[in-house]
Amino acid sequence: MRLLALTALTALLLSTAPALAQDADALLARFLQDRGEDIDACFTDMPQMRDDQRDADFRGATDAPVPLRRLVVAFDASGSMAGALGSDTKMAAARQAVNALLDDLPDDVTASLVAFGHRGTNDDAGRAESCAGVETLVPATDDTTALKAAAQALEPAGWTPLADALAAAGAQLAPSDAVGEQVVYVVSDGEETCGGDPVEQARALHDGDIRAVVNILGLDLPADERAQLEAVAQAGGGLFTPITTQNELAREIEERRRWNANSFEMLRTNNQASMTQLRNSNAAGGALLRLNNCVGGRSLRESNRVRAWSRDQDLTPDQQAALRAALTAAHDAHDARAAKIRSTLEAARDSANQAVQDQRDADAAEFEAVR
Predict the structure, then answer these.
(1) pLDDT tens for each residue of 70-103
(2) Cα–Cα distance measured from residue 114 to residue 116, given in angstroms and rounded to the nearest whole number
(3) What is the value of pTM for the model shown?
(4) DSSP states of 295-346 as a string?
(5) How many CB atoms lie within 10 A of CB 256?
(6) N or C: which end of the chain has fewer CB within 10 A?
(7) Helices 162-170 and 198-207 sit at what angle, rounded to 10 degrees?
């Protein structure tokens, strides 16, 4: 008799299980219609990632290994600059060179003008004033017109305190992690004549926290003075460029303009790449945050509502349990859907950003190849 009762009970439970599951699906549909939220709205408006930003256009050769950010021109206005270079003076050549350095500078680049040798006279009576007369005529600015005007106003006068001029140039710069983003460009026709050590000063600028590059444009230097300025450039990690004719000056001016243009292009390329990657990361991060908040918020609110709704519907305990299980399964499905979207969007972000990085690396390689 007991065996018959157990068999009958088992048969009843097995026969009601499909019905209970079917009842749970119906109850879930009714609950979602009454108190549920539109979960599909959480999965719309996923952003598209950008994987292309290249438009760099490098002009021929350049000697700028990294984009320029700060430039200091150290202008020699010592008395010997009144000497001839071709059919003009070395002073006129220096002004032309300074104009070329300042032409087409990117908006992001600041420049300064340090003058030396422009005070006193080039005889013994004027030496003390001249050697103490290093002056920052124009501090860091993006106003190239003011810089050019200040250079044009200089006239040959005194001695050559080159070491102090380099120290004044360094005062216009800041600590840096990138060698070459700060450049000191000395335009001069002679060696130190005020007792300083420009080689050590250039080395301090290059090897210290500033990590500047010191370039020298030497205007018709006497053979016995050229060695010191070559040593200054070497200690400063830069280039020594001798100018002895107006044709050489013209070539150097063109090179300086090309250098500025290429520096601008590389800086713009880096900025564009960084902004594209940042936009991709922000767009993906924002979309995923909204997705997580949307799915999680809806699941939490529905879970909080289901108990009260079950009481209002006079559901049996078994029906309530079946409904909660069905709702949990639905929420798990939403979570799985969100996880798949998250994985897809993160992969798209990483792929797009890598494509942008590859383009930036290719542009940097081109930039280096035409040095």
Answers:
(1) 999 999 999 999 999 888 899 999 998 898 888 8
(2) 7
(3) 0.57
(4) HHHHHHHHHHHHHHHHHHTT--HHHHHHHHHHHHHHHHHHHHHHHHHHHHHH
(5) 24
(6) N
(7) 20
